[in-house]
Fold this protein.
Amino acid sequence: MSETSSWAARAVEYLTRAASGQPLDRSLRVTLNFHPDRVGASATVLERLARDGVYRSQFETGTSNGGLTAHPGGARGRWEQRIFGHA
């Protein structure tokens, strides 16, 4: 497994400081919804997931079921900057 990038570590640190309440039960699960047949970077999302072993966001795949604003200055990018403390 690779090391956490510095920006990811900063985002986790920011969220840890901003969080309140008790930690969630680690047995809870998260559901990721995606379109496995969408093509981005010359391969489908599912092909890249199988090849790389990593779930990639729309920033990396260039695919979306909504607006493709996951770029610097886009609405999604600005929103994620706010929620992750500009990490």
